[in-house]
Amino acid sequence: MTKGNQEALELDPETGPGSQTGSAVSAPSGVQQTGMRELARAWLSLQCSMLSGVHRAVVLLGTAGSENSQPVALWPEDSEIYPALLDAARQAVHARRPQLYTGAAASASEPAYDVVACPLPAGSMAGAVAVEMSPRPEKNRQASLRVLQWGAAWFEMLLTQEANPFEHRLLTVVDVIAKGLEQEEFGGAAMAVATELTNRLGCDRVSLGFIDGRGIRIEAISQIVQIDDKTNLVRALDSAMHEALEQDGSIVFPESIDDRSGPNAAHTELARGFGANAICTVPMSHDGRAVGVMVLERMRKQPFDSELRSLCEYLASLMGPILDFKRRAQRPLTAKIAAALRERWSRSRANGQLAWKPVVLLLCVLAIGIVAYGETVYRVDAEAQLQGTVQRVVIAPFDGFLAEAPLRAGDLVEEGQIMCRLEDRELRLEHTSLSGDKAKLTKEYREALATHDRSQISVLKAKLDQADAKLALVEEKLRRTRVRSPLHGVVVSGDHTQALGAPVQRGQVLFEVAPLDEYRIVLNVDEREIAAVRTGQTGKLILAGLPNEVHNFTVERVTPISFAHEGQNLFRVEARLMEQGEQLRPGMRGVGKIETETRRRGWIWSHSIVDWLRMRWWSWWG
């Protein structure tokens, strides 16, 4: 492997978590000690699990001010020490700031890589961590550096604990942090941390609460899955957490002789109401601001000594940023936007950048006022439907049965075109029978004429007329079995293609036909807007089937009767379409806008709300 081009990475030493130097640490006698190596290995393994795409990593430690930093931990443990990682780590120790290298592949079989190195300040110790990762965008590399800086901060605290004779507490810190990082969701991480603290510190109950707005929301209580904010326990814990925040420090109950904490009435009530003989409450902070509170309780008479209190404060300082980061990442989008605006406002106030903002605000108000007082045409919106000016109904001429019905709604028809045919078999039989009766009567009539039988001639003449009338009626019915279109247009309704042989009754509507060259528009105007609509006003229509075409119309009639539709009272307004289009069809729907009068934009934007408020005022206090 060869080292790629070096990229200088300038970071503010006062903002990164890993930039804290802390107090002087009494280092062990040498970097080869077993405790130091185990600590570095555990810490490095945890850091690599927090980063994605890590190939290998190394930790160097040595005496501050010397060049004798040596590898004390590798990841994976059975990997080799690559010169590129050593060079990056030593460069970070020498420069005392994070370093970023971009390495190109040495051959086609080897992938490209990124190397991130971060110094590990530890008082009298000096060291660095270098991690080789798969290539990633600049934003993701910055995030990886931030994770290593956070890790450097609590690695320094772990070294401080390593110098303490209580070595078992190192494992407590590592395990608690590991439990918090294992869970992706904030709720699971908080519960895992509370449970681990309960087991590691010999507590009977550990509670974690986080600041939410102006209050505290308790997110996790060990051994309790469902948390009810109305229970006495939650209220007592909330009071104890507020008490610690007000005193801006940790509280131990009962107080020791050298304890300088203030009044702790809430802790006394918590101990008295729920049997706790020892309580330790520690605030958690992130970037100098309080984010939550941790409450540890013991039911047995085993108070929290000063060393255990310091350990709890260390744990709170480490877990606060981790849990707060998970909680903030899990917030909804609206909460994230509001928090970003508040942060921007606070930063502007701190930097003295608010002097020009009143001027900008004034200009915005003036611009809005100018726009609001400008005048434009007030248009009334309404749902619209296209209908034919004339709509003819095709009905069944007599009782019968459907024989043919090839047309359906949407088909174009010519005037006189057959739309359907009724069954005519019985009519033809009746016509044949009547024709035979007429022939017989005709023969008898001629015989009466030959014999000059006047009485018989009169009777037969009447019967012949009756037979002719019946034949004419049957012949007319036969002609009307073929139902024809009354005009040239389009079939608006009617579909009997699936009902052949079905009976029909005289006067039953079979089809509706509308012309293609004459249309009207029916608009359903809301009752709150009908007062502005007048006959003769113009407007524009856009149909859903033809959204790219605008059609002009003129209002011809405003009906004075309303009707209810989908919870609204609507008035029917009829308008005449100014131009006819070949693609227009009766029944098409869209939105029409009636141009009423010129109004100020401010009135147009606000009149609906003002009218609603007037109605509410009248209904309540009128």
Helix and strand arrangement:
Elements: E1 5-7, H1 34-50, E2 54-63, E3 70-75, H2 83-95, E4 99-103, E5 113-119, E6 125-133, H3 138-163, H4 168-182, H5 186-200, E7 205-212, E8 215-221, H6 232-247, E9 251-253, H7 265-274, E10 278-286, E11 289-298, H8 306-329, H9 333-350, H10 357-373, E12 375-388, E13 392-395, E14 400-404, E15 412-413, E16 418-422, H11 425-451, H12 454-480, E17 482-484, E18 489-493, E19 503-504, E20 509-514, E21 519-526, E22 538-543, E23 546-565, E24 568-577, E25 589-600, H13 601-621
Antiparallel strand pairs: 1-4, 2-3, 2-6, 4-5, 5-6, 7-8, 7-11, 9-10, 10-11, 12-21, 12-25, 13-20, 14-16, 14-19, 15-18, 16-17, 18-20, 21-24, 22-23, 22-25, 23-24
Helix pairs in contact: 1-3, 1-4, 4-5, 4-8, 5-8, 6-7, 10-13, 11-12
